[in-house]
UniProtKB/TrEMBL annotation:
Signal peptide feature range: 1-16
Record-annotated membrane-spanning stretches: none
Organism: Oreochromis niloticus
PROSITE patterns found in the cross-reference section: ZP_2
Residue runs in coiled coils: none
Key words of the record: Signal
InterPro entries assigned: Ig-like_ZP (IPR058876), ZP-N (IPR055356), ZP_dom (IPR001507)
Protein name: Zona pellucida protein AX 4
PANTHER family: EGG ENVELOPE GLYCOPROTEIN-LIKE PRECURSOR, SI:DKEY-19B23.11-RELATED
Length: 768
């Protein structure tokens, strides 16, 4: 394995006045057959440059110079780094006893100013040389052979062609001849070859030949349907009768590779580029770290030999590969693999050849599919949406929920939550939670189907690092809750009224509760005398008897039925969905009712109705023709229009009060018994706001029920007269209306010339 050198090194940036030490942004590593420098473009700027340094000076590594001298500069700007690879036999490398010393200058740009950093490293050969080493780099081919290896003369056609040039040679200087099939190429000396871009050298017991691709003397052909470039060079020298000749063949697969549908980057090379007895041994890997074939296959690589061709497949997620996201309208990704392949063969003369390929393979732009998965569980009453397969170089920066923008992370007071989920393969995801009942969620209730629909439109804004290119991913999520029924109250009767109770349900907010047309609120309850309590568990409403909203029926001396109704309406439309109606039987000893159609109904306990002689006295109102509807012992039932039976009325600023009185009579002529000591006054008071036209007709109609009172007064035994004193006690129906300080004027019960306001009739409470 290659000797690895980590980032524990020092870089120096020097000028005439100062030298600073730099430790960030550069990585250097010694590998089996070359030295590598990787530089972060964020450290160097967009266009870093390298210089090779030796005792004679510094030499700019241009594209042409790199191919000639054994350097490869690979700039991957989208990945954010540039890489320099230097052959152990590169031009300005000092080597001795398998020790190779490298000296470079890195020229970077910082804020428009150039700075030079000296990079120095010595590498030790970790794997002994084969007899013949062939390197197929990205921009050149390199062959080195041991100088003590002899090739049998005249064993193949290429040597026979070269022999003609050898026989015609007249000098002992080293000569080079290039060979092409069926073509005689003139020889030239090494100096001439070097001028044409070739490198010939002798290093530490090895002969070296290097050539850039595309030279005039190269041959482009196909071997087993694989494009191959080859250069056949023979180096020779004639020493009297002895000829020294070395055959140097550089042949490399030029296959560019392709990405298949199964997720593999495929590449291939002919197996027989160099003679081999039997098959060849294959080692493959990424980033200069080849591994044995069996190990590679266990890691998902494909290594197959088919019809003289070696097929290699790199899984897209192979460790050591590079991946980059890219936005062109949609989100794409591509993969970059620095492939290293070693192909070892042994010819019939037992000469071992190691053929090394270094290829940077790039996939085409591939669609990157980020997905959303609805993980909502209805009983949790919360949206749960997962955003998955987010690449490692893509981050979520903001989110839009139903057109409302939110930056991340959410505020601590937010009801939303988003959590990142990490995976070993480098991808990550985000889980978003939003409660159904949050104001940002759209809702629609389908009354006919009893279905509640929650809608959440999500727009994710993601950024591709490091350039922060924006990519948007949207999703529309719908949750349906079925069998969403309106709530129902429980109701119980009591002596004083009716109690309603409702246990809260998650969807109570869909509804509103009304008494008639009026929405039940704390303010309404206070004004009408209801007792309302509402907490997190339940809502309770106590409705005292005689408060607004009751409907009374079947009024007799035995009591009456009171009905109260709470309507349940759809909040958005006010459409009535259901109601809770409760009817209770009430039997108070006395009561007074003032109906909306102007009927006064009174049940009064009149103990003085039975005289001391045991006779039942005759009773009437102020008009003695208006008697009780029913009697039972001392209790009497009266029911009559308020504006009849000799009534008098008080007209105040905001109200009108109708008053009558119950009289005891012995006979028609002697109206009042001498021993009667009590007056019973009955009143009904209505707000003027409930009346619309004053006395348009004799029929009385009001929007609201009136407030009734039974008032008892003490009277001298001399006899009863028409009331002229203030009452001392009374029975009052609720809700109470504030009493006014101004004097009360009572008007005799005659038909007035003015008329009452006309309003719609609600319900007739009178039973007679």
């Amino acid at each position: 394995m290659a000797f690895l050198f980590s980032v524990a090194f020092l870089l120096s940036v020097c000028s005439a006045a100062i030298c600073d030490l730099i430790t960030d942004g550069v990585h250097m590593e010694c590998r089996e057959r070359y030295f590598m420098i990787a530089v972060d473009l964020s450290f160097t700027g967009k266009e870093p440059r390298f210089e090779a340094v030796d005792r004679t000076g510094a030499y700019a590594i241009t594209e042409q110079y790199a191919a000639k001298c054994g350097y490869t500069v690979s700039a991957l700007s989208l990945l954010g780094h540039v890489e320099l690879r230097a052959s152990y036999f590169s031009c300005h490398t000092d080597n001795k006893d398998d020790m190779f010393s490298f000296n470079f200058n890195l020229i970077a740009t910082h804020k428009g100013k150039e700075a030079s950093y000296a990079l120095n490293k010595t590498c030790t050969l970790s794997l002994q040389w084969s007899h013949r080493e062939v390197t197929c780099e990205m921009n050149y081919m390199e062959v080195s052979v041991r100088s003590d290896v002899t090739c049998p003369f005249g064993t193949n056609g290429h040597n026979r062609n070269a022999s003609k040039a050898v026989r015609s040679a007249t000098t002992s200087d080293w000569q080079v001849t290039f060979q092409r099939p069926e073509e005689q190429m003139p020889s030239m000396n090494v100096s001439q070859a070097r001028k044409r871009g070739y490198t010939f050298d002798s290093r530490d017991g090895r002969l070296l030949f290097r050539t850039p691709y595309g030279q005039p003397d190269s041959l482009s052909t196909e071997v087993e349907n694989v494009p191959v470039e080859a250069v056949y060079a023979t180096v020779f020298s004639r020493q009297n009768w002895v000829v020294l000749m070395v055959d140097l063949l550089a042949a490399c697969s030029m296959y560019e590779g392709y990405f298949d549908d199964a997720g593999y980057m495929m590449w291939k090379t002919p197996e027989a580029l160099y003679p081999s007895v039997g098959g060849t041994q294959i080692r493959i890997g990424l980033n200069g770290d080849p591994m044995e074939q069996l190990i590679a296959e266990k890691r998902g690589y494909i290594v197959e030999k088919h019809k003289g061709t070696v097929h290699i497949g790199i899984p897209y997620n192979a460790e050591g590969g590079h991946r980059k996201s890219f936005v062109i309208g949609s989100l794409y990704e591509f993969y970059v693999f620095d492939l290293s392949v070693e192909q070892i063969s042994l010819d019939r003369d037992y000469v071992e050849t190691m053929l090394q390929f270094r290829r940077t393979l790039v996939t085409p732009l591939l669609p990157c599919t980020i997905f959303t998965h609805n993980q909502t569980v209805l009983k949790e009453q919360m949206f749960t949406i997962y955003l998955g397969d987010v690449p490692e170089d893509v981050v979520l920066v903001s989110i839009q929920l139903n057109e409302q923008d939110f930056t991340l992370p959410f505020a601590n007071t937010s009801t939303y939550n988003i959590a990142e989920v990490l995976y070993p393969n480098g991808t990550h995801g985000y889980t978003l939670k939003v409660p159904f009942h949050d104001p940002v969620v759209k809702q629609k209730f389908f009354i006919e189907d009893a279905v509640l629909r929650f809608m959440l439109d999500i727009n994710y804004t993601l950024a591709v690092l490091p350039g922060n290119e924006s990519y948007y991913h949207s999703a529309s999520i719908v949750a349906l809750l079925t069998d969403v029924s309106p709530p129902a109250f429980d109701a119980v009767c009591s002596e004083s009224g009716i109690r309603f109770k409702l246990d809260h349900q998650p969807f109570d907010y869909l509804w509103e509760f009304t008494i008639g047309l009026d929405v039940l609120t704390s303010d309404l309850a206070d004004r009408r005398g209801y007792i309302l309590s509402n907490d997190s568990q339940s809502l309770r409403l106590d409705v005292p008897l005689a408060t607004h909203g009751y409907k009374y029926q079947d009024v007799t001396l035995k009591g009456f039925s009171g009905t109260f109704e709470i309507l349940v309406r759809v909040r958005e439309t006010s459409e009535v969905q259901t109601s809770t109606v409760k009817t209770c039987l009430f039997n108070p000893p006395e009561f007074i009712m003032c109906s909306t159609d102007g009927m006064m109904t009174v049940v009064a306990n009149l103990p003085l109705v039975v005289s001391s002689g045991g006779r039942t006295l005759r009773m009437s109102l102020m008009d003695n023709s208006c008697g009780p509807k029913d009697m039972n012992g001392t209790r009497a039932l009266f029911s009559f229009p308020v504006n009849s039976c000799g009534f008098i009325f008080e007209l105040g600023k905001d109200y009108v009060t109708y008053q009558n009185e119950i009289f005891y009579n012995k006979n028609y002529q002697n109206m009042v018994s001498n021993d009667v000591t009590e007056r019973v006054i009955v009143q009904c008071t209505y707000p003027l706001s409930s009346l619309r036209q004053l006395f348009t007709m004799y029929r009385f109609v009001s929007d609201t029920v009136g407030v009734g009172k039974i008032i008892r007064t003490v009277q001298p035994t001399a006899g009863l007269q028409h009331p002229s004193r203030k009452p001392t006690a009374g029975l009052q129906s609720t809700p109470a209306i504030a009493r006014h300080a101004q004097p009360i004027a009572f008007v005799p019960g005659v038909r007035p010339s003015t008329r009452y306001f006309r309003v719609s009739r609600v319900h007739n409470l009178a039973g007679g």
